[in-house]
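Blinded run. Sample ID left blank on purpose so nobody reads anything into the name before looking at the predicted structure. Input follows.
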Amino acid sequence: MDTHYAPPQDPLVVLHEDAEVLLVDKPAGLLSVPGKGPHLADCLMSRIQAVFPQALLVHRLDRDTSGVMIFAMTPYAQRHLGLQFEKRMTRKTYVARVWGVPQEKSGEIDLPLIVDWPNRPLQMVCHETGKPAQTEWKRIKDDGVTSRIRLHPRTGRSHQLRVHMLAIGHPILGDPFYAKSPALDFPRLMLHSEELRFNHPQGGRSVKVRAKAPF
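Blinded prediction complete.
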């Protein structure tokens, strides 16, 4: 697996900005927050705070995943949004390209996950000690070799979508952790956070923000 960190230098893409929330389109290959060591200091959080010093973290996306990420602009909004994520009140939609063609048009994966300690940060399915994890999926289209899938995680476990798709025999293309050649032989992890629905901290109205998948 690739441990070299060479984050993309794409300009910041702001999808929505107001007094309480900021939503951006995170590029693939950029850490959400700093890693351990000065070589992993460059991240989306630091880039955002260079422009919006008041911005606060709410959730994370994996380094190799792109797409919609929300930040709070006030401590109140951070608490409000954090509670929505904790209570699963947000609705997250991802798009992925996977190896193979699932026989079913759609389905739900219900497999508990836990960190694979000897191989961390990898995660694995474990029915004895894993934490509950559920993912809804729908096949959008396929070319006979790979498929485009829309994913709705109902829980927010680490690497959930990646491990769940692997577990049903359809690893996400370009996944440096879980895919093997030929599924690995793609320029990036083909996983994108396409849409986030949440209740706005100011007034509680439902908000939907989207970012088109770049693949």
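Unblinding after everyone has recorded impressions. The longest strand covers residues 91-99.
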